[in-house]
């Protein structure tokens, strides 16, 4: 029954009560007074109910307005969250491309040296060939001239071949790593060989820093996984050590150790012997945008990308620790086929 129907019934009850009081005008005084008191009390009750109904209606209207505003704010918050996620994803992709760009720059610089040597040798060989041809045409070539030319040919062709092979190896390693990083495709690969390719592609950065690199990984461990993700993880570990792990001029050692824990999984431990990580930072090291080098080139996304790649495509887990003796250790557990 609605409040309006309820009040209609109460009004009728009040009218009936007033009619009863008029009919009891001749009744004894106490009876009349009692009836009047009851009617007055009932009237006050009706007025109070009406007031409460008005208050309830006002509160319901306010509640509906608040609910509407909350719904609007919720929709705005959800839109903002989606925008934030999209922005974070864009930053993560930009960070990946930036690391690939740094890889390209380093490899291009590294390739420049063997290609330059090969070009100089080829030019020298061309000059020597032209000189010996001129002597031959003039029928003025001696045994000594021919022997010197052959020695030149032997030395220069050896240098050309070795340097071109070095450049080809760099290009091959970089091509495979770059393709894997950009395609994110799953394939079978030998873990030890692929780690060596990744280290070769990072060679320019490592040689510039001067740190020693040690790899201990048994041959024959074959993964059916995402090599691009693994390359990105190792690259981020190494660049994190180069940027954060050592003071300027300090030389150290970077190591990668791989063990097959059991059938179907491997344990990869990456470590450096640098400054280490403060204890209060370890719990936040994989958080997005957490960096101790804000304003100095640190984006705070490198290790966040590592965490997402290890726990996502690679289907494993990653943990960080900083031993008391110094350095930083990252331990990965990964299935051979996630």
Automatic annotation (TrEMBL):
Protein name: histidine kinase
Record-linked Gene3D superfamilies: 1.10.287.130, Histidine kinase-like ATPase, C-terminal domain (3.30.565.10)
PANTHER family in alphabetical order: PTHR43065:SF47, SENSOR HISTIDINE KINASE
Coiled-coil region: 67-97
EC number in record: 2.7.13.3
Keyword flag Coiled coil: yes
InterPro entries per record: HATPase_C_sf (IPR036890), HATPase_dom (IPR003594), His_kinase_dom (IPR005467), HisK_dim/P_sf (IPR036097), Sig_transdc_His_kin-like_C (IPR004358)
Catalytic activity: ATP + protein L-histidine = ADP + protein N-phospho-L-histidine
MF term (GO), any: phosphorelay sensor kinase activity
Database matches in SUPFAM superfamilies: ATPase domain of HSP90 chaperone/DNA topoisomerase II/histidine kinase, Homodimeric domain of signal transducing histidine kinase
Ranges where the Histidine kinase domain occurs: 106-338
Pfam families in the record: HATPase_c (PF02518)
Keywords recorded for this protein, A-Z: Coiled coil, Kinase, Transferase
Organism: Paramagnetospirillum caucaseum
């Amino acid at each position: 029954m609605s409040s309006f129907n309820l009040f209609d019934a109460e009004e009728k009850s009040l009218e009936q009560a007033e009619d009863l009081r008029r009919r009891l005008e001749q009744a004894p005084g106490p009876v009349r007074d009692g009836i009047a008191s009851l009617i007055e009390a009932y009237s006050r009750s009706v007025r109070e109910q009406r007031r409460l109904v008005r208050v309830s209606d006002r509160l319901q209207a306010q509640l509906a307005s608040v609910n509407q505003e909350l719904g609007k704010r919720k929709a705005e918050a959800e839109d903002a969250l989606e925008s934030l996620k999209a922005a974070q994803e864009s930053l993560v992709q930009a960070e990946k491309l930036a690391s690939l760009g740094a890889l390209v720059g380093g490899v291009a610089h590294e390739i420049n040296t063997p290609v330059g040597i090969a070009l100089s040798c080829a030019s020298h060989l061309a000059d020597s060939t032209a000189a010996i041809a001129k002597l031959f045409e003039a029928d003025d070539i001696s045994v000594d001239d021919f022997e010197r030319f052959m020695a030149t040919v032997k030395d220069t062709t050896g240098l050309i071949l070795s340097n071109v092979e070095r450049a080809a190896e760099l290009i091959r390693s970089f091509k495979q790593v770059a393709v894997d990083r950009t395609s994110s495709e799953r394939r079978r690969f030998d873990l030890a060989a692929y780690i060596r390719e990744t280290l070769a592609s990072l060679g320019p950065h490592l040689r510039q820093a001067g740190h020693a690199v040690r790899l201990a990984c048994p041959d024959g461990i074959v993964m059916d996984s995402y090599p691009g993700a693994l390359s990105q993880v190792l690259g981020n570990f190494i660049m994190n050590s180069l940027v954060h792990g050592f003071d300027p001029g300090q030389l150290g050692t970077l190591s990668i150790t791989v063990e097959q824990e059991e059938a179907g999984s491997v344990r990869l431990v990456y470590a450096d012997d640098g400054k280490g990580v403060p204890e209060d930072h370890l719990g936040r090291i994989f958080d997005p945008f957490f960096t101790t080098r804000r304003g100095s080139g640190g984006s705070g996304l490198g290790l966040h990308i590592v965490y997402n790649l290890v726990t996502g495509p690679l289907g494993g887990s990653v943990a960080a620790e900083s031993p008391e003796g110094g350095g930083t250790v990252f331990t990965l557990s990964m299935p051979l086929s996630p």
